[in-house]
Every structure is written in C-alpha cells, then in structure tokens.
Model the fold of this input.
Amino acid sequence: MQYSADAAETLALKALTWLLGQDELLPVFLGASGASEQDLRTRAGDAEFLGSVLDFLVMDDGWVVKFCEAESLPFEHPMLARAALPGGAQIHWT
Done:
C-alpha cells in the first residue's frame, strides 16, 4: 500500500491529535522536536511538521502500537504515511 500526500497528512494529523492527549509523551515530543505549543497550532497544516510528528511516533514500537490500536490501523501505516511526506524517502546506502 502506498499513501497519497493528502492521506499521509490526514494520518499525521490523527497522530498529532493522539499525541496531544498523551500527557506524559507530549512534553517528550516538544523537547525532542524543539516545537512549542504555539507550533502545534500554527504548523499543524505543514507537511514537514507533520512528518516530524510521524518521525517521533515511529521511534518507539510501543507508541506505534498504542496509536494504531486507538485508530484501528495496521501497525505499518504510520511508516507508510511517513514515506509520503517531505523527507520521508528511505535512503539506501548500498
């Protein structure tokens, strides 16, 4: 399955919404990304910012599982969506 850019942005917005409800995890995202609470409001429509949300989410399998279970999604969908957003192409070094 391949995500379109629009579908990937929609999934990333769902991930951002989920992240906003995670009281312990949201500060970790803000610290790791350097984003502010204002950025969450003003950059929610920015594909690059949404890519950073998915980059953060896929750093931990447990977060992926929790998000996907909350959204009734297959576990590979956040990574597939990430690939469709700017900077998401996987680099092959060989």
User: Anything to note?
Assistant: DSSP finds six helices and no strands in the chain. The chain has a mean pLDDT of 92.
